[in-house]
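re: ur question from yesterday

yeah so i grabbed the chain u mentioned. its 221 aa long if i counted rite. heres the sequnce exactly as i have it in my notes:
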Amino acid sequence: MKWLMAGVATVALLASMQAASAALINAKGTGINYTLTEADTADPLTDRFTLSITGINAATDTEGGREVVNAIAFTPPTGFTTAVMITPPSGFVLINGGLNSTGCNTTGNFFCFDNTAVADVAGDPGLPLLAANSSLSFVFDVTTATGNFAGYNPAFKIDWRGTKNNYDLISLPIGIGGGTPNPQCSPQPCTDVPEPASLAALGSGLLGMSGLLWWRRRDEI
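ran it thru and got these structure tokens back, copy pasting raw so excuse formatting
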């Protein structure tokens, strides 16, 4: 019985682990998919986030003509101290505050990565179009005073530049850490996506419990 109870406790602990990724699927009907994932780093005060964007200039992209991301912004976690863009390796600088149609605007409870390679004016920067159905990935580290990211549910904003004069500004909770999905994610709802590592850990716990029960039954025969 003690082996069974230990196994049940292990599974309960693993099952309680929060998913560390979430998706904005076809946000606001633009045909673009945004996914944010979170992972630990060697620094206990810092977590690494990856923003993946897919469906750019695809047939389903209702705005199209996208050339470049001008700025991205997130609301900070409790105890926020700094954030650093890891990739792309150059061009994006940290500015405190949110963004509008011209980029980071230093206003509001956000931290913003501004693409200094693009002028902060609305309109077409005259760059080549991003490939049809292409994707982008932004990796950045966020540091807090305590390293506690429990319950972090950032609001997400992005400013695009291209042949469309003004792209719709996405400004939605992305739902990481079990946050409430936003109904503007359409046609599908924003849903939390289990982190692969967490699923693997849960599977290992179930296998371990099965093994313990098998050995216990064998000893009793």
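noticed a couple things. The chain has two domains: 1-19+204-221, 20-193. also The CA atoms of residues 85 and 140 lie 4 Å apart.
anyway ttyl
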